[in-house]
Design brief:
The complex is a heterodimer of chains A (95) and B (486). By secondary structure, chain A is mostly helical. Chain A is built from five helices and no strands. Chain A starts with a helix and ends in a 17-residue tail after the last helix. Classes of the chains: A mainly alpha (95), B alpha/beta (486). Chains A and B meet through helix 1, helix 2 and helix 3 of A and helix 10, helix 11, helix 12, helix 13 and helix 14 of B.
Chain lengths: 95, 486
């Protein structure tokens, strides 16, 4: 069972806020989903040595493409979706 | 369903209709029918007419291809320069990308005509397209039923005959399942076969852009145009498929080894089971060899999928902070509060649920117990699929354990809905290709889809098998009335 404190800690990490009513629902949903996710533990329980050998799919440096400098998109185009930018600042208001 | 792209292309080539005239007909059809289907969430008609003028020039100067002048759609998570692209989420309200996805660059270079962006589950998280902030698209086969998801708008547009084909994305079945529910063809290519550059990320190790179309041949023509390596996507692969569309004629299934995994048929609707069984008999009667196999790891695929997909989603969706693009909450005192309010108000319930689960499985103390174990099991699944494909050329399975749900299927819990992805997620976990082909309607008149699965980069084999079925079997699904009037 996941506790209310754990859910609040996760919500803080995920930058999400829940009302009391929403919190009850997300606790119930997460309990169900974690129980469902837990079924994988029946398959590899205690197999810690194997778990440590899981590969990370890292791409070797020699397989990376050449680091070639290309023309960049114009700044004004990249900033076209920013609401309320001012100079180099993107959020207007008292920040 | 009938082939559409080649006949349209012939009309254009013979100048019986111009690309501009064809586009105008499709625009009229979208304006008339989209109120009924809610397939499009934004339209790009002015640009479509510009695309069509370019297409007419290509016909005039002899540079036209099979897709020149053919009207199509992009899912609302595929970027195109200057066009609204919101992932059907409030948090990306008003977002206009400043570059084209590679798939759209390739199609545009071939003279394709984009009519607009299609409806989807918010951030592609769902199996019904009902988590869209624009409301659900409706199934042209029966508007009281969902289209499936998450590429439901594209499936609805193609089945409703208001777009010739659509591009979607498939992270756990999001092209194949709506194709199955709407009675059209849906291809999820091998991971790496099609560039993901410009596809807004959900689960990056699982996401793949796919094709929704009326027929296997149409699907192959589009796949031929969008596949290939791309310097902007390091996971794309340089593999020469040749022309799959050209390889379809004279397909023979004699000697084709078809694996039937019993685990795929456990707990599915009996009508679907019988329909797939009949389809398999058709292959067998034409010389294919049927091999009964067991894939016990399939049972682990769903929890593995949800752990990995949610972990990747929680990371990928961390970028939505109200600063760089999209929606921003009002009335805040500092940046922390602004980000918290923006994310809380901007994301829907299902997205929040998956972000929370992803944060949980990646957090200290649970990473080894869930995420790392899921990665290990994923490797086991890949190894088991590799072994199966040593003895079988293709696998045949249902695309979904059910036909299209009724709208507002609210009785189901999140876990119940996740279970409906049982037949499609193993394909994404293992990175192999699969195509869903409509085979018949159930007793309620809703289409049943058959999934043909192959080993990595065997698109030619699975598409040939699908084409054989389409040409040999009686068309028991048919076309929806209405849509574009030619």
């Amino acid at each position: 069972m996941i506790t209310k404190d754990e859910v609040l800690k996760l919500a803080n990490l995920a930058r999400l806020d829940f009302s009391d009513e929403e919190l009850d629902k997300i606790i119930r949903d997460m309990d169900d989903i974690i129980a469902f996710a837990d079924t994988i533990n029946n398959s590899v329980e205690g197999d810690a040595e194997k778990i440590r050998t899981v590969s990370t799919n890292a791409i070797p440096a020699e397989d990376c493409r050449e680091d070639v400098v290309k023309e960049s998109l114009p700044n004004e185009k990249i900033l076209s979706n920013v609401n309320g930018s001012k100079g180099m600042f993107c959020v207007k208001g008292g920040i | 369903m009938k082939e559409l792209i080649s006949p349209l292309s012939k009309l254009l080539q013979t100048k019986e209709i111009s690309a501009v005239e064809l586009t105008e007909k499709y625009i009229n059809a979208v304006e008339a029918e989209n109120k009924k289907y809610n397939a499009f969430v934004s339209t790009t008609f002015d640009k479509a007419l510009e695309n069509a003028k370019t297409a007419d020039k290509m016909f005039a100067n002899g540079t036209a291809t099979a897709l020149t002048g053919i009207p199509m759609t992009l899912k609302d998570n595929i970027c195109s320069d200057g066009d609204l692209t919101t992932c059907c989420s409030k948090i990306l309200e008003g977002f206009r990308p400043y570059y084209d996805a590679t798939v759209w660059s390739k199609l545009k270079a071939q003279g394709a005509v984009m009519l607009g962006k299609t409806n989807m589950d918010e951030f592609a998280m769902g199996s019904t397209s009902e988590t869209s902030c624009y409301g659900a698209p409706l199934n042209p086969r029966n508007v009281n039923h969902v289209t499936g998801g998450s590429s439901g708008g594209g499936a609805s547009a193609v089945a409703g005959n208001i777009a010739a084909y659509a591009l979607g994305s498939d992270t756990g079945g999001s092209v194949r399942q709506p194709a199955s529910f709407c009675g059209i063809v849906g291809l999820k290519p091998t991971y790496g076969a099609v560039s993901r550059y410009g596809l807004i990320a959900y689960g990056s190790s699982l996401d793949q852009i796919g094709v929704l179309a009326n027929s296997v041949k149409d699907t192959a023509v589009v796949f031929d145009a969008i596949s290939g390596v791309d310097a902007n996507d390091q996971t794309s692969v340089d593999f020469s498929f040749g022309s799959i569309a050209d390889s379809l004629e004279n397909t023979d299934v004699k000697g084709l080894k078809i694996g039937i995994a019993k685990e795929y048929f456990e707990g599915i609707n009996s009508e679907i089971k019988d329909a797939i069984s009949d389809a398999v008999k058709l292959f067998e009667a034409n010389g294919a060899e049927i091999i009964d196999i067991s894939l016990p790891v399939l049972k682990q695929a769903l929890p593995v999928y949800y752990i990995i997909a949610c972990a990747e989603a929680s990371s990928n969706l961390g970028r939505y902070d109200g600063i760089r693009y999209g929606y921003r909450a009002e009335n805040f005192n500092d940046v922390e509060e602004m980000i918290l309010k923006t994310r809380t108000q901007g994301f829907g319930d299902e997205v929040k649920r998956r972000i929370m689960l992803g944060t949980y499985v990646l957090s200290s103390g649970y990473y080894d117990a869930y995420y790392k174990k899921a990665c290990l099991l994923r490797e086991n699944l890949i190894a088991d699929f590799d072994e199966i494909f040593n003895s079988c050329d293709i696998l045949i399975a249902p695309t979904a354990p059910n036909t299209a749900f009724p709208l507002n299927y609210s009785g189901a819990s999140p876990v119940d809905m996740y279970l409906s992805d049982i037949a499609t997620v193993p394909i994404n976990i293992t990175g192999v290709p699969a195509v869903s082909v409509p085979i018949k309607n159930d007793s309620n008149g809703l289409p049943i889809g058959m999934q043909i699965i192959g080993k990595k980069f065997s698109e030619k084999t699975i598409m040939q098998a699908a084409y054989f079925y389409e040409k040999t079997a009686e068309d028991m699904v048919g076309n929806v009335e209405g849509g574009v009037q030619l």
